[in-house]
Write a structure and sequence with these properties.
The chain is mainly alpha-helical and 613 residues long. It is built from 31 helices and two strands. The radius of gyration is 26 Å and the shape is globular.
Amino acid sequence: MKEKKTNKIIFKIILSIIALLSSYGLISYIGLNSKISKAIILLVSLFIYKLSIYVKEIKKDKRLIISTIIFSLLISLSYIIWGKIDINELSYFKSFNRIDLLGFLSIFYISFLSSIGIFNFLNKKAKDNRIFIDYKYEFSKGDFIKYAFIIFILSLPYLFAFFPGNVSSDSFWSISQSVGTLPYSNHHSIIFTLFSGIFIKFGILSFGKKTGLIVGIFTYIIVQMILLSCIYSYFVIWLKTKGVKKVYVYITLIFFSLNPIIISHSITYWKDVLFSSLVLIYITLLFDYFESRGEIFNNKKNIIAYIILGILIALLRNNGLYIFIFTSLIISIYTLVKGEKIFLFSSILVIFIAIIIQGPIYNFFKVEKPSFREASGLMIQQLSYTSINSNDVFEDKDMEFLNNIMDENLVKESYNPFGVDDIKFHKEFNDEFLNENKGDFIKIWIKYFFKAPKDYFKSWVLLTRGYINIDTNSYSKPFGVSENNLGGKGEFGKVESVDLYDKYLGINVSRRIENNYMKLFNKSIISLFTRVSFLAWLNIYFIYVHFNRRDYKMVFTVLPLLGLWFIILLAAPFSNSFRYLYALYLAMPYLILFLFYITNKSSSYSFRKSKDG
C-alpha cells in the first residue's frame, strides 16, 4: 500500500517537472518579457500538469497514441520550421538553436495532451446529445426561401457601399474576354467567364458599352448573391435535417447572413467564391451518400446532381479536376471493397466529361490553354531562390537556359519570397520560350532538386507559410475596383467603385466596412478563425477525431477540403491568400458541429416534418 502511494507521489513529481519544463520551453520559444514570464511559466505549468493528470485517466488504444504522436509532430514542425522565417535575414531564415529544440518538445507535449483531452471531451458531449437531437426535420421549401431571402437582403447594404461590386484584375481578365478585347482563355476558368459574360453582354446590348459594362457587372453580382444565398440557405436547412439543434442552426444562419467576410466575398466578381460554395455542397452530398449507405444513388436525380456538381467543381477552377479525382479515387476504392460500383461509375463519367470539355471541345472552339507558367509556379520559385542563394550550384548551360526565360539579375531584383507572380508576370519573362521548352525546364528542375534540396525546401516553406503556420495571418482584401481600361481605347469607359451612401447621404460606409473587415484578419481574437492555416489544421483534427472513432465515412466527407489544401501546398502562387482556401472558411460550421457527431449513434434517428422553422 505504501509502495503504491510512493509511486503515485513520484509519478506526480515527474509530471510536475515535465509540466514545468514544457511551460519554460514554450514561454522561452515565444520570447515573452522576462519580468512577467516567471508568473506565466508557473500558471502554464499548472495547466499542463492538470491536463496531464486528466489525460492519464483517459482510456487510450494504440491507434489513438500513434495518430496523436503524428498529429502533434506535424503541429510542432509547423511552428518551429515555418516560425524561423525572417524577411530581414539574407536567406530569409533564422538559424536553429537550443530554444527551438526546447520549443519543439514543449509544443509537441502540449499538443499531444490537448489533442487527446479534446478528443475525450468531444466524445462525452457527442454521447450526451449536446449538438444533435434524437429526431430530424424534413427539408422545408418555406424555410429554404425564408433563409435565402434573409441572407440576400442582409448582403445588399454592402453592395450599395461598393457599387457595382468588387472587381479585381483577375475579374477584368474574364470581363475582357466577354467583351472581346481578349481571346477566350482558360487561364481563369472559361466556364466562369462564359457564365458571368452572359450578364456583361446583356448590359452592353441593353445600355451601350460604357453604362452597359457597369450594369452587366452589377447584374452578375446580384445573380451571384442570389445563387450564394440559395446555397447557404440549403446548407442551413441541411443541418436541420441532420438533427442539429435549432440554436446551432440559427447561429449558422447568422454566420452566413451577418458575417462581413462572407458578405464581402458574395459581392466580389471571383470564380473562387462560387467554386468554394459548390465544395460546401459537395461535402453535404458525400455525407448524405454515406449516411444512406449509398441508397441515395438509387434515385437517378441524385446521381445526376452528383455528376453536374462534379463537372462544375472540375471546370470552375483549374485545380478543381485534381480535387475531384483525389476525392473520388479514395472513396471509390472504399465503395468497391464494400461491393458498391455506382459511385465509381458516376465519378469516372464526371472525369471523362471534364477531360473531353477541357481537351477536344476547348480546342475546337480555340480556347487558349493556361500557360505552363501557371502550373510551374512552385518550380519557378524554387529555381529562382536557388539561383539567388546558391548560384554556384548551377552548370553554365543550365543557367544559360534559365536566362532565356528571364535574366538572373532581373530574377534577383524581382524575387518575392512570398509570391511567384512578380517573376512569372514580369514584362521580361519569356513565356513563349518556357512553353516551347517545358520538357527541358522540368528536367533542370528535377536535376537541381537533388543538387540543392535545402534551397528547394526553404523556397517551398516561404511560399506556403500562410497555409501551414497558424501564427501567420491570411491576406484578404476584396474591396473596390482594380485599375481598368478594356481594350486600351477608352470605348468601355472606366469602371470605378462608388459608395452610394457617401454619394447621396454624405456617409462613407465603404471605409468603415473595409476597416472593420481588416480588423477581423489582423487585430481581433477572431483573426484566428480567418487564418486558413488554422482552418486547415481544424480539418486535419476533424479527420483525426473520426479516424480514432473508426468512422471513416466522416473522414471521406472532408476529402475535398484536404485535396484543396494539398493542391495549394503544391501550387500556391502566393503565400497566404485567403480566397484560395475560402472553402475551408465556408465549411467551418460543418467542421465544428460534426466533431460532435457519432455515426452509429445518429443512424437510428427518425424523421418528422418541420412545424416551426
